[in-house]
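Internal tracking record. Fields below are filled automatically when a chain is submitted to the structure queue. Please do not edit lines marked as system-generated. If the sequence contains nonstandard residues, flag them in the REMARKS field before resubmitting.
Queue: standard
Priority: normal
Entity type: single polypeptide chain
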Amino acid sequence: MIAYSYLRMSFILIKNFFLKVLDILLVPFKSELTWVFIDDSFNNDAGLATLTSIFIPQRKMESITIDFYKILSQIIDKFPKKNAHSRIIYSAPVLHGDSLLKNGKKENSTLDFSNIDDDFRIKIFNDIIDLVIKHKLRIVRLGYNNYDELSKMNFKQNQMDNLNWIGLSTYIDRSLKIKKAVCVMEGNNDKMIHALSAWLSSAKETSYLYPDLEKSSAFKNSKKFIGNVFYVNARYCEYLQIADVIGYILHKKDYIDITGNRSDFSKRIYELQPRLEKNIESNELNRLSINGA
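SYSTEM-GENERATED OUTPUT FOLLOWS
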């Protein structure tokens, strides 16, 4: 009995040692990174200027990519084929909520969507929502609903991006339990880069150069942001296309609520929004005060 107990204890010690070693070896694969993919939307008629972001933990990225390309595969199957024994290699369509799978978008200029009807487009919207629900992706959307008034006072889109980014980055810093964040924005023009990067860069300078002032700055801990903000065209990033489609669905609901304008197709998009409710962490529209009004 003593020998058995000794062997059992030895086995437990060896097992625990092995698990600790394995845990150390797996540290590089247990990424604590969360990727934040951001898309902006503007509409003067409804006064909307927003940023929509989706949050993707590093560990989920590959499985999301697999599911995304399953959606694209359905679309490509709609394109003409030469015959049963040969195929045409098509470039992947770029998904934008606005004019989804309709000719007119520059990125899709080589593709013919004439075989795709509105029923199929709604199916693709639903498939993207299914992906978001399946992978439990969080959605944060912040913005303003009086951009029409502000634009008359010479507020530019990059200034609205800056205001919205201040709100979003502060929300990420203070409200979300994220250890490390990598932010990726759709687009890459100089004004946008300045609007987003200057704010975060200034906050990080304060944190690293004057740590005693960090608690009194806008950020509790700007160090959670890896790098600054990365910029890329949505054509080259499936996750930004997902953010674009989700942002468009939320944008369309607000547009219809504010203006009352709707087509039969936009009404169907409007009806998709409730499916996203459980994934929406925040969806807040504010009115920017003008001269105290």
